[in-house]
Amino acid sequence: MPLTPGTKLGPYEILAPIGAGGMGEVYRAKDTRLAREVAVKILPPAFALDPERLRRFTSEAQAVAALNHPNILAIHDIGNEAGSQYLVMEFLDGESLRERLQAGALSIRKATEYAEQIAKGLAAAHDKGIVHRDLKPENIFVTRDGHVKILDFGLAKLTALEPKDANETLTRASATQPGVVLGTVGYMSPEQVRGQVADQRSDIFSFGSIFYEMLSGKRAFTGDSSVEVMSAILKEEPPPLTEALRTIPPALDRIVHHCLEKNPAERFQSARDVAFNIASLSDLSSTGTGTGATATAAAAAAEQAATKSKIRMGLVAVALALAALAAGWFFAQRKSPTAALTFDRITFGVGSVGAARFTPDAQTIIFDAAWDGGTTRLYQWRAETPQAQPMGMEDARVVGISKSNELAVLLHVGALDRQPVTLARMPLSGGAPREVLENVRDAAWSPDEQLAVVLHAANGRDQLEYPIGKVLYQTAGWISNPRFSPDGKRIAFLDHVAFPDAAGTVSVVDLNGKREELTRKWDDLRGLAWSPSGNEIWYGGADANWDALRVVDLAHHDRLLLELPSVIELKDISADGRALIDSRNNRLPIMGRTAGMERERDLSWLDVTVLGDISPDGKQILLCEEDSPGANADAYWVGTRALAGSPVVRLGNGVGGRFSADGKWVTSLSLAKPPKVSVIPLAVGQAKDVPLPGIDRLVGTNVGFFPDAKQIWFIASDTAGAVKTFAVDIAGGTPAPIAPEGVLADGISDDGQNTIGNDAQGFVTLFPIGGGPARRVPGVAAKEKFIQWGADGHSIYVRDFGLPTTIYQVNLTSGQRTAVLKLMPADPAGVVTVFDVAMTRDAKSYAYNFRRSLSQLLVVKGLR
């Protein structure tokens, strides 16, 4: 029965009703002891009748009351009067977020401001182990002075204790009111829809739905029934916010959709990280002038897709494909109104496609892929069959198909992302592969059915050979995608600046070795093929803009062919002019664990987070995040982050290198020209730039300290183009080589007398810095890589490149090896490789980078 004004509940006098819902009736009341207004909630009778429920309610209320956070509704008291259980809370003057949204979307500034407050409130509760489980606009209150309060924290899970109709459980209002259930169901996480355990990441999903609605004025997931809404939550992706409102910075879109990942492991892992990312946007926005400056600064701050300006990443393959198709059609029509594009989808799995080629008759496609975290396999697709069929060969990559239907394949690719492996030939009709050559990165068939190869030579350089043994071109960078012109007179290829960076140019070389660059340098190049006429080269390129499929001719005329809001990698062009493309979404996360943690933690900053090193005490990592995509080679942020979980401490611009042995300093580097290395203190002090006279450019990110921290070592090419490992005094001086040419060092011994790295044959080897014979470490297989020195002083840790990746401890004298770690994220779908690993000497703390790539192979017809 409703309470009338003047009714007393202990020291609280009822003044007027405020509202009612599934969790009880709420009244404005006066605290007669402290002479203040409060809100009193009378809880349903079921609480008083169920002792266990009452005990849990009391415990939960006490926990929430202890939070004392400005963005969580404060609980003052609980009590019981004449069988009525009640809860006393602070009295708020304002309106619910649901009421605020009745007028439509909020301004970007206001939505971001509210979202940051909500995220901070969630973070405070999650830190205490309290999960809301029913976050929605009805449970968010906005006071008249703009403060946001989260209501009913910790109470929602109590409704699950009472077996009621689902509609009644999920709404605060009467279940008979039309639309109420949809309003609540629409904010549930996929795990809640499935009836699984909901942890703090479930709240993050609900938060993402609310943030989406604040920015767009539309609910992220809709339907005509609760079943349709729940199906949308499980299977569909809300449209990018930037599609409807161009004023919304893509960076905000990225944050929202990162919260809305279907798989909890792919979302932000903590509300504190969400708040930090939103705050970063706000901080940068405040330095601009006006809305345009806000959007530009925000985009520069956080639009860190795995490649530049990509749509959100998701694990629902169908949604990704449809998004790519729709976007491709839209942009093709925008660029060429008369174009009649068609898209045929070839793959339907969740995972990554490697290489793909049309057969000469253009009726069959051969490709390799790894689905659902499984092994890479060769597949065959034909037009008359809707689904590709496995060819019975694993751990292989197709790189070419000759006119007589002979395949050129790379064997033992595993997780060796673009690393040199074994080249083999095999008939398309079946049969065992015949090995041809070792240390091959790529290959191509000539029109007369001879092989050109990209060989990783003994001097550490990539060289393009045709025929095999004749060098047409050699580079200190790396080469990919060699393709013969139809007349066989030229080979086009992607000439990359430094491995494994995909930046570079489209180049051609004739059979006499005359090379010519056809394009400017792109920040990211993916795929290349000649047009059937042989007059043009199509290629995938990206810089600060969206990914594009482009065309260049031998006269250097370059034009846009197609844009997609995802990574575009051109795989092949058929004889009849159809393009085979991979519309892909990439992400570069970091996972790690320190001593005492039960499971790994996501340590990613945004979407393209590169691991540098782990501190000697195992408490923090050095990392970097891409800043302004495509702007310049300095477009990275470098920072540190605690493995136990905390916001990133940004140190400045640059790429993270290594910690000093005492953990007090880190190196940071710029990949621009002229190259720059900085030494940054982690405590009070100023960063110091280290001059690098005679150095043309840095290669990779291995820049570390000598044990005494008076020198640094790094890998670079000198002005003559030779790639070497150098050392230089931090105080200044001339860099001097400390290892043979082509050796890319991975560390310096504790006595400062040896570098360690892989020799020309790929074996981990010790190289005396002062000269002398090199010594291979026994018990280490070819292509395994040094990670860290052992704490015992007599061993090292090395890694293989399998999936999962295994870390071994190897005795330097006896070669005895012991497996100590296996690295693989809990969700293996789309994981292409684990490439950067850092660990402490006792192996108790570690972190690793991995690349997750979700592909959709499409045949596009109508491109001109």
Outline the secondary-structure elements.
Blueprint (H helix, E strand, L loop, with lengths): L7 E2 L2 E10 L2 E8 L4 E7 L2 H5 L1 H15 L9 E7 L2 E7 L3 E3 H5 L6 H20 L12 E4 L4 E3 L15 H4 L10 H6 L4 H4 L6 H17 L9 H10 L5 H4 L5 H10 L11 H15 L4 H13 L14 H19 L6 E4 L5 E8 L5 E8 L5 E6 L6 E6 L1 E6 L4 E6 L9 E7 L6 E12 L5 E6 L5 E4 L5 E5 L2 E7 L5 E7 L7 E7 L4 E3 L6 E7 L5 E7 L5 E6 L4 E6 L3 E7 L5 E9 L2 E4 L7 E2 L6 E6 L5 E7 L9 E7 L6 E5 L1 E5 L5 E6 L5 E6 L6 E3 L4 E11 L5 E8 L4 E7 L6 E2 L7 E4 L5 E5 L5 E5 L6 E2 L8 E5 L5 E5 L5 E7 L5 E7 L7 E9 L6 E16 L3
Antiparallel strand pairs: 1-2, 2-3, 3-4, 4-6, 5-6, 7-8, 8-9, 10-55, 11-12, 12-13, 13-14, 15-16, 16-17, 17-18, 18-19, 19-20, 20-21, 22-23, 23-24, 24-25, 26-27, 27-28, 28-29, 30-31, 31-55, 32-33, 32-55, 34-35, 35-36, 36-37, 38-39, 39-40, 40-41, 42-43, 43-44, 44-45, 46-47, 47-48, 48-49, 50-51, ...
Would you kindly provide a written description of the structure presented here, covering whatever features stand out?
- Helix 11 crosses helix 13 (290-302) and helix 12 (271-285) packs across helix 13 (290-302).
- This protein has 864 residues and is α+β, with helices and mostly antiparallel strands.
- The radius of gyration is 30 Å and the shape is globular.
- The N and C termini lie far apart (74 Å).
- It is built from 14 helices and 55 strands.
